[in-house]
Amino acid sequence: MKGQVVPDEMEVGEWQEAVDLFFDKGWTDGLPIIPPTEQLVARLLAGVPDRDPDEVMGTVPPRWAQATARICAVNAAMAGCLPEYMPILLAAVEAVLEPGFNLGGIQATTHCATPLIVVSGPNLKSLGINAGHNVMGQGFRANATIGRALRLIMINVGGGRPGETDLAAFGTPGKFGFFLAENDEASPWEPYRVEHGFGADDTVVAAFSAEGPHSV
Question: Which residues have C-beta within 8 Å of that of residue 188, sequence separation ≥ 6?
Fold first, then answer.
């Protein structure tokens, strides 16, 4: 099951035909996708000009296929990401591929665990990343699409499909995408990135294994 996922080129007719094809192939999270055309993928890769599109970032369990910036851009296109989101998405992928994170266990567990991505940095509002009201809810493109892109990578590169390798008994809506930012302005504590030895001007991505939120 190991190897590299190479994006195939295919011709389809109408937009709906592409959406249905991807769903039938098991390449979606159940929601309609944006067809990842060559032009759209190239536009997203332009958001990370310092990255070699085909450099292997790591292997994604449980399929253990290789993740590259190009493969991530394909899934980012499907999710609806903008080019400026790509540096954060790639950092999120690298975070969950750290051995200590145990992505394989999260992919295969019967529990409702899912990656929660938290970004800590200055000027995140310029990207439209929500750190305030409804931070885990709907309404913010960056939060929704970066989180969704990571899940699509877990499906299409890692092979995490419900009932096959994803054995969650109930799952959680957070598995569609669980991404938010630290609210520096409202927090009484020093930023997460500073607490962990980074500079105040750095942007840092952290990954946690999480359930859904519990109000107390």
Answer: none
Q: CB of 183 within 8 A of CB of 153?
A: no
Closest C-alpha among 155, 206, 214, 216 to residue 179: 206
d(CA 18, CA 39): 16
Helix (H) or strand (E) holding 179: strand 179-181
209 CB neighbour count, 10 Å cutoff: 16
Tell me: the pLDDT tens digits for 133-188?
999 999 999 999 999 999 999 999 999 999 999 999 999 999 999 999 999 989 99
Do residues 202 and 123 touch, judged by C-beta distance below 8 A?
Answer: no
Please, what sign has the CA dihedral across residues 174, 179, 185, 188?
A: positive
Edge-to-edge order in the sheet of strand 179-181: 179-181, 114-120, 204-210
The pair of three-digit structure tokens given for residue 71, joined into one six-digit string: 């493969």
Token readout for 125 is 């509002």
* Interatomic CA distance for residues 34 and 94, integer angstroms: 24
CA–CA dist 77, 39 (Å, integer): 10
The H-or-E segment that residue 116 falls in is strand 114-120
Q: Rounded distance, CA 120 to CA 132, Å?
A: 13
**Amino acid of residue 32:** P
